[in-house]
Structure formats: structure tokens, C-alpha cells
Amino acid sequence: MANELDGFNFEQRHGKARVRVARVWRNKSDHIHSMVEWGVSISLLSDCVNSYVREDNSDIVATDTMKNTVYVKAKECSEQLSAENFAILLARHFTSFYKQVTTAIVKIVEKPWERVHINGQPHGHGFKLGSEKHTAEVTVQKSGALKLTSGIEGLSVLKTTKSGFEGFIRDQYTALPETRERMLATEVTALWRQTPSLYLVTVKYSYESASSIPKNPLYFTERYLDVKKSLANTFFGPPKEGVYSASVQRTLFLMAKAVLNRFPDISSIQLKMPNIHFLPVNISSKENTIVKFNDDVFLPTDEPHGSIEASLSRFWSKM
Ligand SMILES: O=c1[nH]c(=O)c2[nH]c(=O)[nH]c2[nH]1
């Protein structure tokens, strides 16, 4: 919320960060349980300037109330739903329930609990922690206008060949040799804007209304898994022959393009792909070579790392 105050510009928002909640759904007929664990962060833009300029808190939604609301709404969700749908439901609650609230921003990070398999059989109530995380962030205005961004955090991928880096600028500061054989490792962070496909053709600029959210409560969970698959398939290539990467930049672009080509209801995607270096190990004494690198022994590092990021969007997208 921006205001003019005593000749200054004043902006404020308040909320509760990282409210942790787990929700279990028990199927009475087949005894199969589903569960999610979410870290929910809420930020409200609201007309509560009086709490800043005088001792008047009468327009404040207490952040403690926001926290409680997460648990109340989780309780009310009798059916399993995606992080996106829960974020939308919460944000719509805050903007419709409180006259002071003009915009609600809700971000959810889902912990990667995955159902375990025992002897190839899915376990009814056993879960283990995976690695990469599903994120969802929604901004809902009082009018109902809605902006939805989903994402992946911490998707660590590596390939031991089919990667090189050649033809870059060489000058008096350059030591890096050109190569067509190196390790390629990165930790992908992706963010993408969602637009339900049904509405793509007809309402391509105002799909952001709450009523255009797909009915299937797990639509965005499935979409998350499909995007992840598309990113991984493009990074690795086919199982036997793989695919050559001329640079992290090139691979990033192909990954982003694969997602936009595959999913018409995604209007833009941003990818961050640090180049995590595995350095060739060469050790020698004055007299002789102790270890000579032959694409076999590497020194794994985490810093410094290359930082490569880009976004790709359709022309009409507003990301
Ligand atoms: O794929 C790469 N992109 C770069 O921009 C770069 N820079 C560098 O030193 N190594 C690499 N690798």
C-alpha cells in the first residue's frame, strides 16, 4: 500500500512468514492416506496507516490471526488440493473477509514428501523426503484479479558427458581451455506463470480472475510434475545417447522453450541454472605427475559458481 504521508511516499505491508502446516487426508474405504507439508507466507496490503502514524491498531489484521487462518482453512479442506489451490483459497479469504485488505500475496513452499514403495507396492501411509520443492505464489486483488506463479526449487541435476564449452572470448585474462568433454551440474530454480488453457483462446489478457481456475483440485500438482519432467528430459536427452550441451545458456534456453511449447497454459518461465563446477584433478610434484586427469577424477565445488538465468515469455504475457 502506497500513501502520501507528511510529504513523503509511504509503503507498507504486513503478514506472517513461514507458517508450517501438515494436512493428512484419510480415505476411509481403502485406508490410503495422502499428506502434504506446507510453509505458508502471507503478506497483506491493507489500509492500516493509522497503526503507523498514531497509536491506533483498529484496522490491523493481527498476524497471529493470519496464522490461525492457515490451520482453520487447512481443516476445512476435506479433499486433497494443490499448494496453488490452497494459496488461492487463503488469498481470496483475506481479500473478501476484511474490508481493509486490498491485496493478499500468499506463497507456499511444499516439502517434498513422497509416498514410499515397498517391494514395488505403493505404501498406504508411508512417506519419505525427496529433494526438490514445489512452490506456489498467488496475488489476489479485492476485485478478484489473480496472478499465479508456480515453481521448482533445488532441482539438482548432473551429467557426466555430452557437455562442452567452446568459442568464448579469449583475451589476456582467459585461462579456461575449450572443451567438448566436461561434467555439467546445476541446481535448477524455475518459476512459471499459469494460465488455464480453456480460457487461453477467449480471454487471453484477463484469465487472471479467480473463476478461471481449473476445477480439478490437483491440476497444478500434476502440472508441476509434468513441467519437472519436461525440464529434466530436455536437460538429459534420451537415455542411451543423451544430448550435447554447448553451454548452460543453450541448455537453459532449450529447457524453457520445451516447457512453453509443451504447455499452452503457461505464459512465461524463468530459469536460474548456476553452473556448478566439477574441476579436473591434476596433481604433480616437482619430479613427477601424481594424478593426471583423464575425465575421471574431479574436485566437486559449490563456490564460486557460474550464475546463469533467463526468462522466456509469450508476447502477450505480463510476467
Ligand atoms: O556453459 C557455460 N557458460 C558460461 O558462460 C561459462 N563460463 C565459464 O567459465 N564456463 C562456462 N560454461
Automatic annotation (TrEMBL):
Its main location: other. PROSITE patterns: URICASE (PS00366). InterPro entries: Uricase (IPR002042), Uricase_CS (IPR019842). GO terms for cellular component: peroxisome. It catalyses: urate + O2 + H2O = 5-hydroxyisourate + H2O2. Pathway: Purine metabolism; urate degradation; (S)-allantoin from urate: step 1/3. Its EC number is 1.7.3.3. One of its GO terms (biological process) is purine nucleobase catabolic process. It is found in: Peroxisome. GO terms for molecular function: urate oxidase activity. The keyword Ribosomal protein does not apply. It is an enzyme of class 1 (oxidoreductase). Keywords: Oxidoreductase, Peroxisome, Purine metabolism. Pfam families: Uricase. Catalyzes the oxidation of uric acid to 5-hydroxyisourate, which is further processed to form (S)-allantoin. NCBIfam families: urate_oxi. Belongs to the uricase family. This is Uricase.
